Recover the amino acids of this structure.
């Protein structure tokens, strides 16, 4: 008799790499955590929690089981070796992109986004980035370190140039970061008119979304590295996804879940549901993965 068992992959992500459209990759790195470490346990916690949720989304009226998703598992990253870890993340992502798959990256702290953007720019040089986050992450350095989850979006701007970063949910940062954000006009109000204006600007551009889970209010998602009061509710986040799904999103990451700070596991469960909604909102649109002939075509 064949006994049932719970798989270790994200729910329904059991397609082969070759037949998949979307590919999940865990990047369990938290070597730049500045307050509460433990985000390296986020990817595995999201997978475990996913087996307690449904594959069907009542918000998008779609079901994960209808789409081919592959879970590559987690990268083995050497603790304490920051540049080596970031290099391994970039190399693994290169394989996903070269096979024209939709990348779904799970962190890990927010620094993982830096090598991700560096690699994606090789395929989509006109890339724009939407950062959904409580924190600006625009510092020049943090405690003498230029590579940090507190500096990651400043480094991303160095890659992209000004005018291609859009920040939603921002409510924390030092004065210099907000001055820079005002100069770049990067912070987008959650007000519908501001979102509509951003969406019009991005309509014909490839867009990458980086989601720091601390954008959510910590009253119901406390298990993050740097919780910040006053965040989005789950329903507000779903409304945001519905607005953003009209864009040409070519990949996304979800970072900063630190599951051990929430013994109820509600944070991990909520993150699993958020992942389901983002996959169904972005991964299976007809224009996803438009890389015509290798690199630098979008």
């Amino acid at each position: 008799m064949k006994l049932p068992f719970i798989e270790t992959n994200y729910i329904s992500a059991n397609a082969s790499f070759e037949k998949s459209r979307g590919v999940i990759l865990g990047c369990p790195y938290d070597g730049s955590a500045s307050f509460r470490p433990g985000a390296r346990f986020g990817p595995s916690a999201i997978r475990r929690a996913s087996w307690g949720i449904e594959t069907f989304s009542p918000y998008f009226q779609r079901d994960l089981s209808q789409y081919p998703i592959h879970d590559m598992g987690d990268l083995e990253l050497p603790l304490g070796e920051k540049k080596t870890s970031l290099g391994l993340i970039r190399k693994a992502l290169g394989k996903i992109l070269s096979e024209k798959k939709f990348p779904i990256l799970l962190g890990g702290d927010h620094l993982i986004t830096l090598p991700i953007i560096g690699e994606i720019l090789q395929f989509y040089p006109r890339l724009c980035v939407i950062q959904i986050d409580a924190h600006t992450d625009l510092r020049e350095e943090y405690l003498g370190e230029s590579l940090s989850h507190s500096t990651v979006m400043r480094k991303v701007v160095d890659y992209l140039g000004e005018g291609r970063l859009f920040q939603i949910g921002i409510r924390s940062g030092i004065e210099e970061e907000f001055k820079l954000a005002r100069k770049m006009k990067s912070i987008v109000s959650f007000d519908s008119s501001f979102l509509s204006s951003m969406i019009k600007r991005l309509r014909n551009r490839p867009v990458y979304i980086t989601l720091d889970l601390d954008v959510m209010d910590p009253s119901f998602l406390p298990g993050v590295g740097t919780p910040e009061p006053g965040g989005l509710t789950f329903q507000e986040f779903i409304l945001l996804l519905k607005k953003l799904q009209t864009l040409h999103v070519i990949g996304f990451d979800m970072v900063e879940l630190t599951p051990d700070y929430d013994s109820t596991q509600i944070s991990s469960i909520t993150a699993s549901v958020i992942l389901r909604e983002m996959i169904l909102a972005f991964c299976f649109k007809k224009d996803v993965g438009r890389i015509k002939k290798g690199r630098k075509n979008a």
In short: Residues 256 and 294 are 32 Å apart (CA to CA). The chain has a mean pLDDT of 91. The two ends are 51 Å apart (CA to CA).
